[in-house]
Each structure stands twice: as structure tokens, then as C-alpha cells.
Design a protein that fits this description.
With about 300 residues, the protein is of the alpha+beta class. Helices cover about 50% and strands about 5% of the residues.
Length: about 300
């Protein structure tokens, strides 16, 4: 077997700085989202300025360093997410939408509208009972009916709170699908706006790859394969391919085991070499990670990823 030497890598130092900067933007955004949605739910009159100022600061950073932000999406605290999935899900869908937006040629005002709708798209879920949201079982038909009303309830709440009509419309239509199987209006084909399609696809990807109270999340590669097979009629094929180019089989933050037996975490997917990303060595459980080294698998042809532990 090839003798593997993890080269000191200047970017590993920069990587820690980038992660710290992401957290410095993400935490205030999460906090302000909670504050605003609390007011919306109490039918108050929230000021949108701070939330959208924070979002406007985050959007160019996500576009500039998508992999570091996507690492936060796919490498997350499972138990914390189970308890706060409505908020964290919305944040992660927002990151996914912005990170993949260049592949769909979404720019300027459309990008800010998309990011805003992604951040707020699930406000209607807060009208659903905690018992239903945290149910560790499949929902009953009546519970499912109530859940499927959340786009209508959410858009109504946001409209009443003075949110822009362009954002409210996306929130209302986010679960519409091209084959007419979506809800609440069963829109079809060209009646489903392109931004609605993008938002719906990012929502779908996030949902399947993350835990819910009643189920585990699926490994990304398995989840994406299943989505393409089961949902090919819901979104345009070109949109699926664009998402796959950006996210790759091992998106940033994915935990992998190498052929050397060591655990590692993907820090930079490489679209031209999707099976050979840059990884950060983590050693074995209980061992301290070596934070000073990163491995470019392109430079080590005898080392490869053997599995992505769930």
C-alpha cells in the first residue's frame, strides 16, 4: 500500500478561519430568524430590516465560499436538529439554494428573493401542533392534510406581516411540482415558476438527507440516487444535473472512511473529480483530529473513499 503522507496544507489553517467566519454569520441569522418568526406567529409587526441585512451579508459569502457553508449543512448536530428542524431546515435550504444558484443562473434581485423565500418557506409549519411535528411515526391522513396546508398558512402570515409579494408567492407555491402532484394548487409544467422549482428541489434534497423525528437521514449518495429515480418527473432534468455538479456525491462536511482505514471529512468537493475530493484527516473515534493537514485525493491514486458512514 502507498505510504500516505499528509502534507501540511496552508488552506487547513485558512479553513478554520473560514469556518469561524461562517459561524459568525450563521448564528446571528438563526437568532434573528427565530425572533422575526415569533412575532409573525403572534401576528405582530416585525421589522424585516435586520433579518434581510444579515441575509444580504451572508449571500455573497455563500457564493464566494460555498463548500464551507455546505459543510455546515451536511455536517450537523443530529440531536439539536431533531428539536429545531423547522428553523435549521429553513437555514440549510437557504444555503443550498444560494450555493447552487450560479448553476441555475440566478443573480441580482432574483437571488435575494430566492434566498429570502428559502429562509421563510416553512413558517407555516409553526402552525402545526408540536405533537404532529415531533411524531416519531408516520403521520395519519388527517395529520398529513394539516401539514400540507402549511404553504397557504405560512404565506398568509407573511403577507399579513408586510412581506414583499414576490417572496410570499414563492412561499405559497414552494410545494408545487411540474407533474401536477404538488400542493396546494396542483400547478403543472410552465405554471410552476423557475424559482419555485429551485426552492422545491433544495427543500427536497435537504429533507431527504437530514433526520426527522420519525426517521433517520439518508447518506447523500444513496439519497440523491433515490431522488433522481423517484422524483425525476417533479423537477426538470437539467436542474437535477446542475444540482449534482455542485453538490457531488460527497458534499462538503461528509464523513468518509478511506482505504487506509482512517476517518476523514470532505472539505472541498471537486466537480471534475467527484470521487476524489479534498479531505481532512480525523483519525479514529476518540483520537484528536490532526487539524494541520488536508489530503488531496487526486495526489494519492492508491487512496480512495470506501464508504460514507451514515
Amino acid at each position: 500500500m502507498e505510504r500516505v503522507v499528509l502534507e501540511p496544507f496552508e488552506e487547513s489553517v485558512q479553513l478554520r478561519k473560514k469556518r469561524k467566519k461562517v459561524d459568525g454569520l450563521l448564528q446571528p441569522l438563526r437568532q434573528e430568524l427565530g425572533t422575526v418568526l415569533d412575532l409573525v406567529m403572534r401576528q405582530g409587526a416585525p421589522s424585516w430590516n435586520k433579518l434581510f441585512t444579515l441575509l444580504a451579508e451572508a449571500v455573497p459569502q455563500i457564493r464566494l465560499q460555498p463548500d464551507v457553508w455546505l459543510e455546515r449543512v451536511f455536517h450537523y448536530d443530529v440531536e439539536s436538529y431533531r428539536q429545531n428542524f423547522v428553523f435549521d431546515h429553513s437555514l440549510y435550504v437557504c444555503i443550498l439554494a444560494v450555493a447552487t444558484s450560479p448553476d441555475w443562473n440566478v443573480e441580482g434581485e432574483d437571488l435575494l428573493i430566492l434566498a429570502s423565500a428559502a429562509l421563510l418557506h416553512d413558517v407555516g409549519m409553526l402552525t402545526v401542533s408540536t405533537e404532529t411535528l415531533q411524531a416519531q411515526r408516520a403521520l395519519t391522513p388527517e395529520e398529513r392534510r394539516i401539514v400540507e396546508e402549511h404553504p397557504t398558512r405560512g404565506s398568509s402570515l407573511l403577507a399579513g406581516a408586510g412581506l414583499k409579494k414576490s417572496i410570499v408567492r414563492l412561499v405559497a407555491q414552494e410545494h408545487e411540482r411540474m407533474d401536477g402532484s404538488g400542493y396546494p394548487s396542483r400547478l403543472k409544467d410552465k405554471d410552476v415558476d423557475r424559482l419555485v422549482q429551485i426552492l422545491g428541489l433544495c427543500d427536497t434534497i435537504e429533507s431527504v438527507t437530514h433526520v426527522r423525528p420519525h426517521r433517520a437521514g439518508r447518506a447523500f449518495l444513496d439519497a440523491f440516487h433515490a431522488l433522481i429515480l423517484e422524483s425525476s418527473s417533479l423537477f426538470p432534468q437539467a436542474m437535477w444535473m446542475a444540482a449534482l455538479r455542485r453538490l457531488t456525491p460527497y458534499p462538503a462536511g461528509t464523513l468518509v472512511r478511506l482505504s487506509t482505514g482512517k476517518l476523514a471529512r470532505v472539505v472541498r468537493p471537486l466537480t471534475q473529480h467527484p470521487m476524489r475530493p479534498m479531505v481532512e484527516s480525523l483519525g479514529e473515534p476518540g483520537e484528536p483530529p490532526d487539524e494541520s493537514t488536508v489530503m488531496d485525493l487526486r495526489r494519492h491514486p492508491m487512496v480512495h473513499i470506501v464508504e460514507a458512514p451514515a
